[in-house]
Amino acid sequence: MTKKFDYTKDKNDFTREMLSDTLKYQKKYGFDIGQNNVAWNNEADAFRHAYMQSLLNQKYGSLRTKGISYLHEQKGSWQGQDHREANMDMWNNQQGQQIYNEIRKEYPNFNKLSQQQQKDIIAAKVVQRMREGKLITGLEDPREFQEQKLQLPFTPTRGVGGVDNNGKPLGFASDIDINQLANMLGIQLPEVQSKQDSGLFGYTNPLTGSNHIYTREEVGQMTPDEFAKHEKEIDAQTRAFNGTMPTNGNLQREALTNSGVVYVNSYTRSDGTKVSGYYRSKPKF
User: Residue 263 — left, alpha, or beta (φ > 0 → left; ψ -120 to 50 → alpha)?
Assistant: First the structure.
C-alpha cells in the first residue's frame, strides 16, 4: 500500500532533502547548477525534478506522484509561473517517472537495497538521461510536454488551467477539479487555490516599488559607491523586513519551496552595462 502524502506537513522537509541531494550529486557529476548554487531553469533544476519524481513514484505510486506533481505545477501557474517553466518541469517530471519504471525492471530487488544505494542508482540514471539530451535543461528548449489526460474515477467539474499563454496544452486535462483530485489522492491541501504560502509574493520596496530583494551577500560585495547609490532602498527593505536581511541561502530555499521569489541571472544591457544576478519577488495575481 502506498503511503498517504500530507502535503502541508511533508513537502518542505522533502524539498530540503531534494535540494541537499541535488548539491551532493552536482559535486559528483559536475552538471550546471548556476551562480550561487541556484538550481533554477538549468541542469540542476532538471536533475532535481527527474530525481524527485523517481523517488516519489517509488514512495507513493504512479497515480499519486502524477497528482502531486500536477498540483504543484498548477499552484505555480496560479502564482504567475512562466508557462515555459511548467513545460520544463512537467517534461522532466515525466522523465523521472519513466526512470523509476526502468529501474524496477532492471533491479528486481531494488526496494531491498539501502536508501543510499537506491538514491545513487536513480541519480546515475537521471544524469545519463541528461547527458543523452532527454531532459529539458533550459527555457529555450523548443520541445513541448504532451500527455494524455489524467484518467480520473470521477467527472471533473471545474477548470483550473492546464494550457500555456498561447492556449497550447501543458499535459494534464484542463478541466480537472483540484479539490476532487486532492481528495482522491489523499492529499491534505487546505486552501491551496487561494493561499499564498510566502510573505514575499508581491513584495515591492516601500521606497522605490522595485521587486529586487537585496541579500547580505549582495550588499557585502558592493563597492562604496554602489552602496551609497542604493543605501536608502536597502534601508527601506530592511525596515520592511523588521530589521533583518535575507541571505542567498534563505532566498534559494524560498525559490525552491514556496516559489515566492526567482533568481535573475546576470546579463548585459543594450548600453553595455553589466548587471549582476539578483533575486526578485514574484508578482501577486
Answer: beta
